[in-house]
Design brief:
The protein has 438 residues and is of the alpha/beta class. It has two domains: 146 residues, Rossmann fold; 255 residues, CNF1/YfiH-like putative cysteine hydrolases (4-Layer Sandwich). It is built from eleven helices and 18 strands. The strands form four sheets. Strands 9-10-13-12-14-17 form a six-stranded mixed beta sheet. A five-stranded parallel beta sheet has the order 3-2-1-4-5, with helices on both faces. Strands 6-7-18-11-8 form a five-stranded mixed beta sheet, with no helix packed on it. Strand 15 and strand 16 form a beta hairpin. The longest helix is centred in the first third of the chain and has 18 residues. The N and C termini lie far apart (56 Å). This is Purine nucleoside phosphorylase LACC1.
């Protein structure tokens, strides 16, 4: 069942107001007749001309909006100077109400154009269907002036212009939830490496569980890739790295490691390099983003370590890759564990807890319960030390000076961090990142 209807009047010229009003009235009438039981939310998208006020634009359509009582509280006119701005505003309204099934009524020749905007601004969470805006035969002047037939591919330059329009609009948006904040470790020498762990502030993602500096997009979440790209651009500006030389692990919750410059695996949870100016990153929204730095051989790495990856030894696999590829000495490698779910909050079924108990009984609390508490950080430290990393070269939540602590519990700090454990399926993601300075 359609949950929302978007009527796209954006391309229709303002000097034909009477025709537009009639067109809108007929379209709303058809929606109302088809929606006697369940009235959908209706958004009318129109162009705000340069120098005009939004209120004036909306008032010009009021005669066509009167009389639709069943739609009255569910009807909104959205005016903006660009399609990107108007459609993004509509998306915000849809997300506020958790709506996903949308019908778009629009002029035929706008359909392929609209699909490009949708591909950039929406994810697979949303379902769209399209219906032609019924323009009366005697209203030929309402047709869009385009030299392209429906179904033809948009020229690549048009697609590039659409992407540029969206990016410019997103860049103009204010940061949400405060300034962008980066946590840094005193263990990693900042004269050689650029590194940090992000928090959730300072981006443009507006959905509560994703707000605001979400740095991962997937088909199951409502934050599109282009918004994540803008958040990353802002992070890169603040941190001082090149977003075009940014490489994030392809999470598989296992222990494969990618060596920069060699054939890239399909999936991997660790990544290493000795190239300057290349930024490596690992995501985390409870799982541990782990950073590795060797100031002697000038090599670095990043790993994503959830409970499965921890048991599979992803951190030591990343260390071993640095040793074998770059000749690193185990005793020179520094390891920092970033914000992640702590033993105060994280629970696993008893069968999984047994594996951590085998590493060290202290990794498990309330072992005899159905869902014991697990300390994946302690398990990571123990496996690293057993592998040859010096205890003093590992920074985690066992640090004595709490002013130096950056391994916060993500579940305990909703104001600072995202948490899958706490927020459910539509969760945001922070990252740990590192690069070798030029």
């Amino acid at each position: 069942m359609v949950e929302a209807v978007l009527i796209d009047l954006f391309s229709l010229t303002a000097n034909l107001q009477s025709n537009i009003q009639g067109l809108l009235h007929n379209t709303l009438e058809a929606i109302e007749k088809c929606s006697s039981i369940h009235a959908p939310f209706v958004y009318v998208m129109c162009c705000q001309r340069q120098g005009s006020e939004r209120k004036g634009e909306q008032e010009s359509l009021l005669p066509a909006l009167r009389g639709f009582r069943s739609l009255k509280r569910r009807l909104e006119v959205v005016c903006a100077q660009t399609t990107a701005a108007a459609l993004y505003t509509v998306k915000q309204r849809l997300d506020e109400k958790d709506l996903s099934i949308i019908k778009i009524i629009l002029p035929t020749l706008r359909k392929d154009l609209m699909k490009v905007y949708i591909d950039h601004l929406f994810t697979a969470v949303y379902q769209f269907e399209f219906e032609d805006l019924q323009v009366a035969p005697d209203s030929e002047s309402l047709q869009i002036s385009e030299h392209r037939h429906e179904g033809q591919m948009l020229p690549s330059q048009d697609m590039a212009l659409i992407q540029s329009e969206i990016q410019m609009y997103l860049e103009s948006l204010p940061s949400l939830k405060g300034e962008l904040t980066i946590l840094r470790s005193s263990l990693i020498p900042d004269d050689i490496f650029l590194h940090g762990f992000t928090t959730r502030t300072g981006g443009i993602s507006y959905i509560p569980t994703l707000s605001s500096c979400n740095l991962f997009s997937s088909s199951k979440r409502r934050d599109p890739q282009i918004v994540v790209k803008e958040n990353l651009r802002r992070l890169a500006n603040a941190a001082g790295f090149n977003p075009e030389a940014f490489h994030r692990v392809k999470v598989d919750h296992a222990n494969a490691v990618c060596i920069m410059g060699k054939t890239e695996p399909n999936d991997y949870d660790g990544i290493v390099t000795d190239q300057k100016g290349v930024t490596l990153a690992a995501p985390g929204a409870d799982c541990i983003p782990v950073l590795f730095a060797d100031p002697v051989r000038r090599a670095c790495g990043a790993a994503h370590s959830g409970w499965k990856g921890t048991l599979l030894g992803v951190s030591m696999a990343t260390v071993n890759a640095m040793v074998s590829e770059y000749g690193c000495n185990m005793k020179d490698i520094l390891v920092v564990l970033g914000p992640s779910v702590g033993p105060c909050c994280y629970r696993l079924p008893h069968e999984s807890a047994k594996e951590f108990h085998r590493i060290d009984p202290k990794c498990v609390r309330l072992f005899d319960s159905a869902n014991p508490y697990i300390d994946i950080r302690r398990a990571t430290r123990i496996l690293l030390e057993r592998g040859g990393i010096l205890p003093e070269n590992i920074q985690d939540d066992s640090i004595t000076d709490q002013n130096q602590n950056i391994t916060f519990c993500t579940a305990c700090h909703p104001d600072k961090f995202y948490s899958h454990f706490r927020d459910g399926t539509n969760f945001g993601t922070q990252i740990g990142f590192i690069s070798i300075k030029d």
